[in-house]
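Morning!

This is the sequence you dropped in the shared folder:
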Amino acid sequence: MNNTRLPAALTSIEGLENAMEDLTDDQWPRAMGVLRRELRTMDEFRLFSSSYPIELQTRVLSIVQRFAYYDPNVGDISDISTWCLERWLLLLNGNSREVGVLRGLGEYWNLRGQQILHRIRANSSSSGDSSEADRGAPRAFLNRVHTQAHVEARGLLQPSADYYQRAVTLAQGNDTLDGDLLSEAAESHINIGSVTSGRESQGYFQRAIRYLRAASLFDDYELSEDLQRYLDDYGQYVD
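The structure's back. Tokens below.
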């Protein structure tokens, strides 16, 4: 077996990531063709077996799943999305206490939930029912949490919050916690909170605020404008 093919495939994946933001609509089909070719190569060389570093495996999967959900508001590229989930679960089976794996699965489910979340928010806005809850306010109550769309959203976003919470707990324990992970975890909790009601939603929002506060304490880290605004607006409600 040609031992240069896997390194070439990994280099190709990195190149696709670097070019992602600049790809035009006409270039996407070719890029997806290249990506699928490299996925076949990685499977041929069993990249996600235990013989390869977990850091490499999680790095590659994180790149690929961003292609699967390059516009999460309109859905996924189903074959690539499925490929990612299968390999995340394969890694989880032998690395259940690996922060990178838990974080990657948190990101996967958060991305997967964006389409239905976008639809819920769009429907709320068009019906004139856009409230603090749609924006994830800690003291808000989302009135229509029992619609089919909200039930579907919770089914996708709950795993994201759970995986991120586990990742944060493990990172705290091994002193690898950083602002990026905390911000991602906060966003996932804001999302699940916005499609949940009552005391349960308050728990998600409060944890999101605590994650954002912790992230803001890192000297070399700055929250995004949206998350900083969220913390400024709603942090006063959380001890």
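Headline: The CA atoms of residues 12 and 18 lie 10 Å apart.

More detail when I'm at my desk.
O.
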